[in-house]
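Look over this entry.
=====
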Amino acid sequence: MFPRLQSAVSVREDGWAQRGGVDRVLTLKCGRTYTVDEKIRTEDWPDILLEQWSDEARRSPGWVQKPLACDFIAYAYAPSGVCFLLPVVPLQRAWRQHGRKWVELYGQRRACNPGYVSVSVPVPRGVLMQAVVEAMFVS
């Protein structure tokens, strides 16, 4: 995705970057930097799970609707090695425009974690990519 990539530094320590969704900082040879949040699924699915609530009981917004410090979400499927590079601003705009409809159409998936339950919406990849492209147009 980044042919002029000079470095890719992993961000693993807790702090503002990690809490803002930054897992990796990419630096191009020209000096430009991009920040990336990495999401990996262990199975190939025809959808992208958009985290609506990171903690359902506390109504803590998930990554699709909370302010993020990253430029992109790298959403990968481990078995096939396929990765979608999703620009955060248009992705979140697409969610604001279509999120309620997507919940009705595609339902929600809950993940029980120690001490909290997160809620995600499985949006078909083609539907999401079209909405992200359309979210880049402003009139």
